[in-house]
Amino acid sequence: MASETFTLTLDGVDVSAHPGETLWQVAKRAGETIPHLCFKDAPDYRADGNCRACMVEIEGERVLAASCLREAAPGMVVKSATSERARTSREAVMELLIADQPARDTSPDRSSHFWAMADSLAIDVAAVREWLPSRAARHAPTVQHVTGRDESLPHAQGHDQSHSAMRVNLDACIECNLCVRACREVQSNDVIGLAHRGAASKIVFDFDDPMGDSTCVACGECVQACPTGALMPATLVDHQGHGDSAQADRKVDSVCPYCGVGCQLTYHIQQEPSDRKGFRGQSEGEVRGPGTAEVASREGFTAPSRSSVTGFPSQERILFVEGRNGPSNQNRLCVKGRFGFDYPGHPARLTRPLIRKPGLPKGLDPDFDPAQPLTHFREASWDEALDAAASGLLELKTTHGPKALAGFGSAKCSNEEAWLFQKLVRTGFGSNNVDHCTRLCHASSVAALMECLGSGAVTASFMQALKADVVILIGCNPAVNHPVAATYFKQAAKHGTQLIILDPRGQALDAYASLSVRFTPGADVALLNAMLNVIISEGMYDESYIADHTEGFEALAASVTDMTPEAMSGLCGVAPAVIRDLARRYATAERAMIFWGMGISQHTHGTDNARCLISLALACGHTGRPGTGLHPLRGQNNVQGASDAGMIPMVLPDYQPVGDAQLRAAFEELWNTPLDDTPGLTVVEIMDAIHSGTIKGMLIQGENPAMSDPDLNHARGALGKLEHLVVQDLFATETAQFADVILPASAWPEKDGTVTNTNRQVQLGRAAVALPGEARPDWWITQEIARRFGLDWDYAHPREVFAEMAHGMPSLANITWERLERESSVTYPCPAEDAPGADVVFSDAFPRAGGLARFTPTRPLPPDEPIDGDFPTVLTTGRQLEHWHTGSMTRRSQVLDSLEPEAAASLSPGELNRLGVAPGEPLTITTRRGAITLKSRVDPVMPDGMVFIPFCYVEAAVNLLTNPALDPYGKIPEFKYAACRVTRAEKHTAEAPAQA
Ligand code: SF4
Ligand code: SF4
Ligand code: FES
């Protein structure tokens, strides 16, 4: 908003206004909240002016004006609170609407914004309902007359319970249109519309489908926007449809635990009803997902009345979640953040430490029920379990040396927990054998960014897409994997940004793209080098930027000379003219950004893929300015932070190489311990080292390599060979089933901590509910193990850990715990304690020698395992909108599990036709490493010759099939390409895979 102001008069008082402000906004700043129904005071909600609840009187104008729409002007004389005409008009609007509302105590939300507005106008609701006839009595036409529908159907009457997460009761709808704007303009999903005319008009989903059958992606934005409760979270209404949004006892601001977007949210928390049975009020028989049996009644599993760690009553639960105005989400959430909050309360939650019973084999036993772990484990006290956990590891270290141990940390834990975990491995275990899931998602991107730019983080936030003229999305599917970021890409496209999507598969965002190009799987380098060839041969590069900010351009130019569009077209499957068009659009844009995902990184040439993208940006000068930049969309909620904190085998915190004596000395001084100077092993290398007998003991914090590693038989075989495995987690995951000791750990809403999202925003999560039973925060568990390794750790709270981190990590300069408590989010790098962090970096120089970024030439290489006659189809893997990573949390969330309950292989209609398989019929997918059988699903955006399978389903674990071949630099496996054979299965066998 412009800084200049002008003056007008509001209710006789001079008030200032900014150009473009509405009278409603001016009044709000002056301390008056004018009644409003169809207007929502939140980012990106356009005023519509349809309800007329906000009328004001303007001197010299005959009719009243809607303050939510009317722009303030210099010298205007406005009467709001002092206008009798305005008050009468507002009351009239409310009275007419009240006549049509269900009675307050039978309304879907008796504490709705609507009733609050009625209260603010002191309307006598009972009297109004007495003397004013309802719409049904006033109007003859009905929806039935217009549509001829069967009104006996529940949803046809405006009551719709077809969705597992939301309830619809159009009796309470005032047709304010807010949900339409929420769906169409804010989240850009375009599912909700206003249908019909006059008295028959109504809100509809798609073509008046039941909500649960519509294309709704369950972001819940409409529920958050609806002022009446006509749209409500299902957890807030009873079976009669009566509800109350104020029934929560308290609320806590935090951050979403799922993806790297880092949406800020508010947990609304309620005391558990005493008669509540089983999982979220359901009878046990209704519970779905892995591990469903009741644990509360198990002997010895009695929870203390108050958690000794968080101090919250243990009988509380999260009732619902709302989006908060964070810098990466502006109140928006996706289905996981909004509705996937109940997994911490799943009956299979671990609540006491467990030790494996003697003589039982380790591994996946089809008879093992994660909710009944006492078949294979016995309960232990914390002291006994921690002693067993630590002594087993210590013995191996004493016998075989420090390098016999390794640790996998978690990108789902906090920064402080990541810091402590890598510190334990480095100072307690005595090696750098520490890694986490960054190795499986963006390690190659980070390797290329470190090499070429000197920094592994994004150069600009995804919000900068709104300022870009051209945005390239390559190898990513944000609508599925980063759904709230996708809403900004859609908005950018609607406002004129050219969205260019490059991917072997189609995706939902294609509908917003100026250009969507599908290329041959694994041929990224050929396509991108051909674009560089065009940019250089046509002189579209930025000569002065290259001269001032880069090195190595001549070598790059020489290397791409022969990679003309014509030469590369056959490799990448894109016509030369299209390659030229792509290159010209990107190079000639004033401001352009590139976003990428694991379609780029999860290849044996993943680092080369990222190098090409960096070269494109450097050649065109598309970094360091608003609306320009390079942005690998980070996966897990804290994969950026866990990497920054040093949970990587070759670097200390802030990416300081372990082999650099000077940098290492600083940490040796900070931690008062000598450190290993050789890089440790990565995730897949650790599995290999277990097989070869080098590594014999592991500590695994919240990771699930028995599901997430490639070639699972190999990985599970390794886990089974470990002489001592300690797992800390929420559930008896597939990995925990190999453990000697299982330590019950903390879910994100149960602890304080910071996380760093894909935009480099360090954000504070606050404990919202009690830890169940004897579960403990992960930082506490790590400290207890460290103490048993003889380390004198004495952290009383994560804020003390954060203070230590700030000493060792220059990236955290000017970010303190106290500041985060005040501001919730601070972007790094941050120049001062009272200044915001930098959304766009590297305007002047790069953090490399001489301040220059580097071009690294690349050559196209085939995938490690190209398709052939025996295995003619490309298998690719990834995530689904509803399920995160290995599904250990999302498959234990009722809403998410009900939306996507079973594994399916997605193929093109043509491919299914060729196989003679109808959608839903079973398929067997076979690679050189194994076979799985699962349901088929038709997906028109799939290319022929390719099959996509999500990796979260243990009953059809696709990582049994994936290729463990590694990128030589990032050491990331080739999850995105394995040669497979797809055949019709005689019978659908959705059984757990054979024990490794
Ligand atoms: S459902 Fe709610 S948000 Fe949508 S038009 Fe009706 S009252 Fe407004
Ligand atoms: S986009 Fe990511 S961070 Fe935001 S609500 Fe969804 S899963 Fe959570
Ligand atoms: S709030 Fe202004 S017209 Fe509805």
TrEMBL record:
CC terms in the record's Gene Ontology section: membrane; oxidoreductase complex
Domain 4Fe-4S ferredoxin-type: 164-194, 208-236
Region (Disordered): 139-161, 274-310
Keyword Iron-sulfur applies: yes
Listed InterPro entries: 2Fe-2S_ferredoxin-like_sf (IPR036010), 2Fe-2S_ferredoxin-type (IPR001041), 4Fe4S_Fe-S-bd (IPR017896), 4Fe4S_Fe_S_CS (IPR017900), Asp_de-COase-like_dom_sf (IPR009010), CT_Formate-Dh_H (IPR041925), Formate_Dh-H_N (IPR041924), MoPterin_dinucl-bd_dom (IPR006657)
Nucleotidyltransferase is among the record's keywords: no
Composition bias, Basic and acidic residues: 147-161, 274-287
Domain 2Fe-2S ferredoxin-type: 4-84
BP term (GO), one: respiratory electron transport chain
Keywords, in A-Z order: 4Fe-4S, Iron, Iron-sulfur, Metal-binding, Oxidoreductase, Repeat
Positions of the 4Fe-4S Mo/W bis-MGD-type domain: 249-348
GO MF terms held by the record: 4 iron, 4 sulfur cluster binding; metal ion binding; molybdopterin cofactor binding; NADH dehydrogenase activity
Official protein name in the record: Formate dehydrogenase subunit alpha
Organism, scientific name: Halomonas urumqiensis
